[in-house]
Amino acid sequence: MAQAAAYPHWKTRFFTVWTGQAFSLFGSQLVQFALIWWLTETTRSATVLASAALVGVLPQVLISPIAGPLIDRWNRKRVMMVADALVAFTTLLLVLLFAGGVVQLWHVYLAMFIRSAAGSFHFPSMQASTSLMVPDEHLSRVAGLNQMLQGLMSIVAPPVGALLIGLLPMQGVLLIDVVTAAVAVLAVLVVPIPQPERQPTADVSPLRAFWRDMGSGFNYVRGWPGLMAVIVLVMLLNLIAAPALSLVPLLVTNIFGGQAGELATLNSAMGIGIVVGGVILGVWGGFKRRITTSMMAVFIMSVALLLIGFAPASAFWLALAAFFVLGVMHSLANGPLMALLQSIVAPEMQGRVFTLLMSGAALMMPLGLAVAGPLADQFGVQWMYVMAGALSLLMTITALFIPALMNIERNHQPQGALEATAGAD
pTM for the whole thing? Predict the structure, then answer.
């Protein structure tokens, strides 16, 4: 955006922060793997693992809408530092509990909840700050690097975590996350992060100002049909696709007659695809109209889901190729979408917009998962992939005929959104 032009050394500043966040992400992935493995070994309970997943999602659903107005009002640099510090402190408490041999199940649940809650503040703060640190023409490439990093971590962290669990006690593995979080805090500390301009506000109570800001965030989205369409589209795609992807273990065992090795191969194929897609986006940058890149990627993802659904039991290779394509298109769909929002949403509203997007997407996951199991048991696991692919394809084609969505980059902030922004100040 225009503000980034005032920072001639934006690459050094941004990538200092980005590198710190990469360390933190690696530590977080290690902890996630270690805790899930501990829960698995300790309880052998599917209910416990499902509960752990729910604990991780709930803060995104419940806390994100609250976090948005605060992120836009508070200093985003401090928000990121406090969030990383809270993660480190929470993990350090777990280190002490494991070292003392007194850790209990509820301790792990609580730590997972707090870590997820901190992420509800940290992720949108980082995304909202990126648009003020990176020139607009490079936002898609930076988004591609973020997708590549996510994919790389999904490939590297689990085997490294498994290796470390065999070499170190649990508290030793967890302590790594404390160190990586400290690196992230230090990186943010030494870099100036611009803040969005805000008009002086009337002298009102903090609580009243909070509710007013929250309301203005909803009004901003509601007053911009294109932005509303983007959020609804993401929510519906999560509702449709997430349940199918949660059934990969059953796909491997029931359809292809595979075991853990085949499951790991599919997961690795998708992870490698995410990395490749991130590299492609980082080099290419996508089409000039970012929404076109995202819609193209969602269209191809829909076809890949259909291929998985129709793959015969003897064609595991076809499913493997489809999962690789899913990974590539995941990066090419999400990266430009994030860059688009960073480019067109008013800087002082980005915290609220990103948290609304996170909350809506997270809400769809448990709803979809609640019906995926019974439907898969009734009609077969591949039917879920056929349904997901067909519905996603139908949604994508329909979206192409929604002018408010497809022209969102041309029609910046219609009057209703502008009025909502003014009402926030």
Answer: 0.75
Q: Summarize pLDDT for 119-156 with one digit per residue, the tens.
A: 889 888 988 888 888 888 888 888 888 888 888 887 78
CB atoms within 10 A of CB 198: 12
Tell me the domain boundaries of the chain.
1-193, 209-425
Indicate the CATH number of 1-193 among 2.60.40.1080, 3.40.50.1950, 1.10.10.10, 1.20.1250.20: 1.20.1250.20
Q: Could you read off the pLDDT of 344-389 as tens digits, one per residue? A: 888 888 888 888 888 888 888 777 777 776 777 788 888 889 999 9
The span from the CA of 245 to the CA of 13, in Å, is: 37
Helices and strands, number each (H, E), in the chain: 17, 0
337/349 Cα distance (integer angstroms): 16
Tell me which CATH code domain 209-425 carries.
1.20.1250.20
Q: Judging by beta carbons within 10 Å of its beta carbon (0-12, 13-18, 19+), is residue 192 exposed, middle or buried?
A: exposed
Write the Ramachandran bin of 45: left for phi over 0, alpha for psi from -120 to 50, otherwise beta.
beta
